[in-house]
């Protein structure tokens, strides 16, 4: 059976499963559409949260980011998991107790202001729409690579699928589809990782293989990797090279950004009890950790495999003990098929600059270091000859690099699609909830019937899918900057305002609104100063380099500073204006205790 | 009034527990994983040092334990203060 047929079968089977679930879990009421009738068990909700959270970025890009940078990009691992501790202790249980459907609804009620609710809606829409563009692009790329259709056809197929289960099922349909998608994506991620860990270190668990012994050379795997990459002029894999301050701030921005992402928060509205919201955050992190503790092993091992493919000597002995891989081998050898396949996508490329028939891969920036300098002189090298290596191929090409069977490749393709589609659906639900519940029912037409609202929710979901697809087809120039933007905004606006709403009874509407605006505007101005106004290249006022950054703080890390500004401004303004009315203080008191109606009546 | 006081005691106990968990949360990630890594450089783990392990594995495992510990303690506290669902 050809690889194409296999891909088609596996992806087709996974899609049939999702549609089957969608038909079974249709939503009949707004409570089902927005919050799955609050009937999802904490373990199931944890699994759905994990799929919702782990996007194309986690599945496809993260291991590659770690592979080519090493220790310094541990920030992603800690940042994208540590946020769940904040969610479990600072937000989820209280927002569940509050018992409404959307994040802006809490902001509006707690700060007794329709304006605050609208500011919340605007922040939510900017965050979720930038985020969803990345997912849709990921769907298009995966389709075009594995099903040999054009990227835009792939995008429309993906959009049609999301339409079926998100518009029909709402939160209920999305939740149960996400459970299935989690299972598909975790299997897809783990199987190749286990194979590769076995090949390189003899460990079944990639998590221990990472710290195990490299079988072929007898050295510790990470020590061997450090040796090989520094031989080739790269910075050591395990070393700490970037600014410590920026690492801390970036990790913090990812953590509080995660805790402030509306599509993650609304997942905790679906569980039956407050106690379940706490536990569910734990289960979510367990399921996320299954991928996140494997990712650093996938990153380091695929980096090693790639390097050892280019320099076969590195496998068993000294890096330069054998000549580099030859052009002829790349063009003919069966086990190097993957290089030719990926060259077609433009994500991998090479060029024999000095015409010696060999492809030498090294880092030009480290060309002065020994032993590389001697090799360059002896072999007359004219520059690095592996001219393009895209981060993203590290996960997608992983099974091919390691020569794993065809069905593994097909599962990885289905996994990548599951990761992108599950996150897109969660984001679209957050967007449609904000439009139908906060804008239409909350501001424009408060008298709308339940049936009317459900219809409005479905229409706004369909419109969001259409907008996301069109944006995915023509990604605006800033698609690559979505991480900085989405996390920076979530960290500097939504997280602080929710936390202050719960932990301070004194915080009033003036403080909250001033804080949100100050946090969002300072973060946007800082990002735009270095990345260009609205990401239009050439309009940046300062160069985007570490020397030009204020105190060496990168634009992606600024969300942390934005959050601090938000808190500070909110407290100052709140202290200078009159305290919130008594019923708002009662509301805060009531969300702090799990007991429902009883506690509320006692006040 | 007595209800308000008991829920105050409950809230103070909750805040104390949150602080404890947050200190551990920060210590394993920002501490052992980043800032204090040079101090742990002497403890070698599989070809590198303990700080690297905390940054790529340990902190995540501690986060999981922290959430379940917090959930377990809070469920007990809910019952002790009579505010459980």
TrEMBL record, chain A:
InterPro entries tied to this protein: Na/Glc_symporter_sf, Na/solute_symporter, Na/solute_symporter_CS, Na/solute_symporter_VC_2705, Sodium:Solute_Symporter
Keywords: Cell membrane, Ion transport, Membrane, Sodium, Sodium transport, Symport, Transmembrane, Transmembrane helix, Transport
Signal peptide: none
GO biological-process terms attached to the record: carboxylic acid transport; sodium ion transport
GO terms, molecular function: symporter activity
Superkingdom of the source species: Bacteria
Subcellular location per the Swiss-Prot or TrEMBL entry: Membrane
Transmembrane segments: 6-25, 46-71, 77-95, 116-133, 153-170, 182-201, 247-269, 281-301, 407-435, 455-473, 479-503, 515-536, 548-573
Annotated membrane topology: Multi-pass membrane protein
UniProt cross-references to Pfam families, sorted A to Z: SSF (PF00474)
Entry's Gene Ontology cellular component terms: plasma membrane
Similarity field: Belongs to the sodium:solute symporter (SSF) (TC 2.A.21) family.
Protein name (database record): Cation acetate symporter
Species assigned in the record: Paracoccus pantotrophus
Automatic annotation (TrEMBL), chain B:
Record has Transmembrane helix as a keyword: yes
Annotated TM spans: 17-40, 52-72
Alphabetized InterPro entries for the sequence: Na_symporter_ssu
Pfam families assigned: DUF4212
Keyword Hydrolase listed: no
Keywords: Membrane, Transmembrane, Transmembrane helix
Residue span(s) of domain Sodium symporter small subunit: 8-84
Name of this protein: DUF4212 domain-containing protein
Protein species of origin: Paracoccus pantotrophus
Lineage start: Bacteria, Pseudomonadati, Pseudomonadota, Alphaproteobacteria, Rhodobacterales
């Amino acid at each position: 059976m050809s690889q194409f047929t296999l891909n088609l079968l596996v992806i087709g089977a996974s899609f049939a499963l999702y549609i089957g679930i969608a038909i079974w879990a249709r939503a009949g009421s707004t409570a089902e559409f927005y919050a799955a009738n609050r009937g999802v068990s904490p373990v199931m909700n944890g699994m759905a949260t994990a799929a919702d959270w782990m996007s194309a970025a986690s599945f496809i890009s993260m291991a590659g980011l770690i592979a080519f940078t090493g220790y310094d990009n541990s920030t992603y691992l800690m940042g994208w998991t540590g946020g769940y501790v904040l969610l479990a202790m600072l937000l989820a249980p209280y927002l569940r107790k509050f018992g409404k459907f959307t994040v802006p609804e809490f902001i509006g009620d707690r700060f007794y202001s329709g304006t605050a609710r609208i500011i919340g809606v605007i922040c939510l829409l900017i965050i979720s729409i930038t985020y969803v563009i990345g997912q849709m692009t990921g769907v298009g790329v995966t389709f075009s690579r594995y099903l040999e259709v054009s990227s835009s056809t792939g995008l429309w197929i993906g959009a049609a699928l999301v339409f079926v289960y998100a518009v029909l099922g709402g939160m209920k349909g999305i939740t149960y589809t996400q459970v299935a998608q989690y299972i598909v994506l975790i299997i897809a991620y783990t199987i190749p990782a286990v194979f590769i860990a076995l090949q390189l270190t003899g460990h079944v668990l990639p998590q221990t293989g990472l710290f195990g012994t490299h079988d072929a050379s007898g050295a510790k795997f990470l020590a061997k990797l450090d040796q090989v990459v520094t031989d080739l002029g790269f910075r050591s894999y395990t070393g700490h090279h970037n600014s410590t301050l920026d690492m801390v701030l970036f990790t913090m921005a990812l953590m509080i950004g995660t805790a402030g992402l509306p599509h993650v928060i609304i997942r905790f509205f679906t569980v039956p009890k407050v106690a379940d919201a706490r536990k569910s955050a734990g289960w979510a992190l367990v399921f996320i950790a299954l991928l996140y503790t494997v990712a650093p092993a996938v990153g380091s091992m695929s980096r090693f495999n790639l390097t050892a493919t280019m320099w076969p000597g590195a496998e068993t002995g000294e890096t330069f003990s054998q000549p580099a891989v030859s052009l002829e081998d790349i063009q003919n050898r069966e086990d190097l098929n993957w290089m030719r396949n990926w060259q077609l996508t433009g994500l991998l490329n090479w060029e024999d600059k000095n015409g010696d028939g060999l492809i030498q891969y090294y880092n030009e920036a480290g060309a002065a270091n020994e032993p590389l300098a001697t090799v360059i002189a002896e072999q007359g090298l004219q520059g690095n000859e592996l001219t393009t290596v895209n981060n993203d191929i590290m996960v997608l090409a992983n099974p091919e690099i390691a020569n794993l069977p065809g069905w593994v490749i097909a599962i990885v393709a289905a996994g990548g699609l599951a990761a992108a589609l599950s996150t897109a659906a969660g984001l679209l639900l957050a967007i449609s909830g904000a439009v139908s519940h906060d804008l239409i029912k909350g501001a424009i037409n408060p008298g709308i019937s339940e049936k009317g609202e459900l219809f409005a929710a479905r229409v706004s979901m369909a419109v969001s899918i259409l907008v996301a697809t069109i944006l995915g087809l023509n990604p605006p120039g800033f698609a690559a900057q979505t991480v900085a933007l989405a996390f920076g905004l979530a960290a500097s606006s939504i997280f602080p305002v929710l936390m202050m709403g719960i932990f301070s009874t004194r915080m009033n509407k003036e403080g909250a609104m001033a804080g949100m605006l100050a946090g969002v505007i300072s973060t946007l101005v800082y990002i735009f100063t270095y990345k260009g106004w609205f990401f239009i290249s050439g309009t940046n006022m300062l160069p985007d380099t570490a020397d030009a950054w204020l105190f060496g703080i990168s634009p992606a890390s600024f969300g942390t500073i934005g959050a601090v500004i938000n808190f500070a401004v909110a407290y100052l303004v709140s202290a200078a204006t009159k305290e919130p009315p008594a019923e708002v203080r009662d509301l805060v008191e009531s969300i702090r205790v799990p007991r429902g109606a009883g506690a509320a009546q006692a006040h | 009034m007595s209800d308000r006081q008991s829920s105050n005691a409950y809230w103070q106990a909750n805040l104390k527990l949150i602080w404890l968990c947050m200190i551990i949360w920060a210590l394993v990630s920002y501490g052992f994983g980043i800032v204090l890594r040079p101090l742990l450089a002497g403890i070698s783990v599989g070809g590198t040092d303990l700080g690297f392990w905390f940054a790529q594995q340990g902190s995540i495992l501690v986060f999981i334990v922290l959430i379940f510990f917090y959930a377990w303690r809070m469920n007990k506290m809910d019952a002790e203060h009579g505010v459980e669902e």
